[in-house]
């Protein structure tokens, strides 16, 4: 339910921009993180809970793949990084300042 809401209301044009270029960059950035951790696709699947087939499609940068915020979060968390890093974007949301 929440994932459907986020997917429908996620500001894709503002965050992803030109879909073809950024989907390719997303796959490349995930692959870079996998290489840094000496992980294979099965490791990312095990840690993220995302289907291996879907992860493979994202890594191959298939143009019709537009992962949901939930999927991006699961991948980022498994890799020990952030969605912003995977998308190569500055912070997407304002973070509260520490007082």
Walk me through the structure.
With about 100 residues, the protein is mainly α. It has one domain: lambda repressor-like DNA-binding domains (434 Repressor (Amino-terminal Domain), Orthogonal Bundle), CATH 1.10.260.40. About 65% of the residues lie in helices and about 0% in strands. The chain contains 7 helices and no strands. The termini are far apart.
- Low-confidence sequence ranges: none
CATH top level is Mainly Alpha
CATH superfamily: lambda repressor-like DNA-binding domains
- Assembly state (oligomeric): single chain
Question: Roughly what fraction of the amino acids lie in strands?
Answer: under 5%
Q: Give the overall pLDDT as a whole number.
A: 79
**In DSSP terms, counting alpha (H) and pi (I) runs of 4 or more, how many helices?**
7
Number of domains: 1
Query: Which bin fits the share of residues in helices?
Result: 55-70%
What is the number of E strands? 0
What is the CA-CA span between the terminal residues? 34 Å
The Rg value, from CA coordinates, equals 13 Å
CATH architecture: Orthogonal Bundle
Element order: H for helix, E for strand: HHHHHHH
Q: Given the helix and strand composition, which structural class is it? A: mainly alpha
């Amino acid at each position: 339910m929440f994932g459907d809401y986020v997917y429908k209301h996620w500001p894709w044009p503002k965050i992803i921009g030109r879909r073809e270029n950024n989907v390719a960059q997303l796959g490349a950035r995930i692959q870079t993180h996998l290489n840094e951790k000496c992980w294979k696709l099965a490791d990312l699947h095990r840690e993220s809970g995302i289907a291996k087939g879907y992860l493979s499609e994202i890594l191959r940068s298939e143009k019709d793949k537009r992962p949901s915020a939930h999927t991006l979060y699961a991948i980022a968390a498994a890799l020990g990084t952030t969605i912003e890093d995977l998308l190569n974007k500055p912070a997407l949301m304002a973070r509260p300042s520490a007082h």
